[in-house]
Amino acid sequence: MAHGTAARRRTGRSSLPVALRVRYRLTPWWLRVTAVFLLSRVVTTILVLILASVQKANPWTADHPDYFSFATMWDGRWYQIIAGWGYPNELPLDATGHVAENAWAFMPVYPMLVRGLMEITGVPWAPMAVFVSVACAFGTALLFYRMMIRVLPAGSALFAVALFCFAPLSPLLQFAYAESLYLMLLTLALLLLMERRYALLFPVVAVMALTRPSGLAFALALGLHVIYRFAVRRREPFPLKERVLAESVAVFSGVMGLAWLLAAAVATGDLMSYTDTELAWRAPYIGHRELLPFTPWFQSADWWLGSPRGPILVVLLIVAFVAFMFTPAVKRLGVDLRLWVASYALYLLAVFFPQSSVFRLLMPFFPLLGALAVPRSRIYRVLLLLVCVALQWGWLLIAWGVDGRDWTPP
C-alpha cells in the first residue's frame, strides 16, 4: 500500500512538468508574445521610474518628474511642437548665419497621428504620445514573431521577441519618439517582402518613409531583392507580374525617400533646407560642413578618438560587420532580412554622423536578434536577458537622464 502511494506521488510530481508543457504548447502564439511584452514593460517602467525619482530640474522637467513628463523629453518636445504648431516656413538661423536646429528634422506621421487621437479623445499630448508608442511596440512584437517563425523554430522565434522587448534601447518603445511606429511599419514591410506581397508594400512604404528616414535604404533593399530573385529565377520562379510590382515598389520607395526633402524645400523655398537642418545637429561636434557621403563616420571617429586611431576603428568595424553578416546564424535569417540589414548599414555609413544617438539609429537592425536567439541553452538565454536589462539601465543613465548641460542625447 505504501509502495503504491509513493508511486502515485512520484507520478504526480513527474506529470506536473508534462502538464505545464502541454498547456504551454496549447497557448496561442499571440498570448505568449503578449506575456513577454507585458513583462518587459513592467521591468522597463520600474527602471524608468527609478531614474525619474532622482532626476533634477532640467530644460524639460522639474525635479523628480512624473512618468509622462519624463517620457516626453528630448526629441519628444520636437514632436510636441510639430503636433501643436506644425513646421516653420522660414528656417531659423544661428549667430553665424547657418541653419539652426528646427522641426524639419522630424517627420510628420507620428506627431500628426498623436494629434489626431488627441482631437478625438481629448487626452493630452504626453499620455497619448506614450500610448501610441506602447501600442505600436506591441504591434511590432506580434509582427516580429510572425517574421521570425518563418526562419526559426517557435522557441527561438519567441526568444527573439524577448530580446527585442528587453533590448538595451527598449525604454524608447514607451517614450514620445517615432521609433515604435517606425519599427512596426518596418516589420510589416519586411514581412510583406518575405511573403512576396509586393502590392501591399506601396501604402506601407509611403507611411514608413514619412515616419523615419528609411525610403532610400528600403529602396536599395528592394532593388537588391529584385536582382537576387532574377538571378535565382530558375530555382525560384520570378513571374513577370511579380517582377514589375517589385521593381515598381523599389522605385516608389526611392521617390518616397526624397519626398520629405522636397516637401521641406517647397515649404521653405530652400532646396537644401532638410539637409542643412540635419547638419545643424552635428555642428557642435565638427562645425558647419557640407554633407559628403561616406565621410561622417570617419569625421566622427576622428573627433572622438583622433587620427589615425578613429578611422582605423571605422575600417575594422566595417570588416567585422561584413564578416558577421556571413556567419551561419545570420545566414539562417534568409536573404531578404540580410539584404535589408546590409542596405540600412550602407545608408547609415553614407549619411549618419555617429554620436550618442547612434545606438537609437541602430534599432532597425533588430532582425539580427534572430541570430542571437538561435542557441537553446537556458543559461545562455537567461544571462543574455540579464545583460539586456543591465544595458537598459546603462543607456537610461547615459543618454536619457539629464545631468547638467548634457551632451549625450538619446
TrEMBL record:
Q: In which pathway does it act?
A: Glycolipid biosynthesis; glycosylphosphatidylinositol-anchor biosynthesis
InterPro entries on file:
PIG-V/Gpi18
A cellular component term from Gene Ontology for this protein is: membrane
Query: How does the record classify its membrane topology?
Result: Multi-pass membrane protein
Transmembrane portions of the chain: 29-52, 125-145, 157-178, 198-228, 249-269, 312-330, 337-353, 382-402
Q: GO terms for molecular function, please?
A: alpha-1,6-mannosyltransferase activity; GPI mannosyltransferase activity
- The yes or no answer to whether the keyword Translocase is present is no
Alphabetical UniProt keywords? Endoplasmic reticulum, Glycosyltransferase, GPI-anchor biosynthesis, Membrane, Transferase, Transmembrane, Transmembrane helix
Q: Name one GO biological process term.
A: GPI anchor biosynthetic process
Location of this chain's protein in the cell? Endoplasmic reticulum membrane
Can you say what this protein is called? Mannosyltransferase (PIG-V)
Q: Which organism is it from?
A: Microterricola viridarii
The top of its lineage is: Bacteria, Bacillati, Actinomycetota, Actinomycetes, Micrococcales
